[in-house]
Amino acid sequence: MALELEISLLYAGLLALLYFVLSVLVIRLRWRDRVGIGTADSKDLEVATRVHANFAEYVPFLLLMLVLMELTGAGPILLHALGSLLFIARVGHAIGLNKSVGPSFPRTVGVLGTFIVLLVQAGYMIGYVIGRVV
Known about the structure:
Blueprint: H1 6-33, H2 43-71, H3 76-99, H4 105-133
Helix pairs in contact: 1-2, 1-3, 2-3, 2-4, 3-4
């Protein structure tokens, strides 16, 4: 019997596609600037690798928490809200950072959206455990 994790699987797939795009952007810049490791003096490559790395720093953990929420029976509306917000946030972060290394509206949306997902997930999980213990 397979676990029913359709919602988490949907967002894992969408985020995997986004990660692929971010990876290709880094590879293209490495080829263009002939940089094997690091970023050399390429500002474009430095930004692209930070966008890629930031994604890798946050998304796996947030996806794991989405799976755990689905396994504990979180409602589909909440799961879709968090999954879609995470996807939109990560797209916004990538666009915003590529526009400017300083503050920008898309980057702000990306950071705030990611943190909202993180905090809501943390609250759900803590509340779930407290609700089962009490």
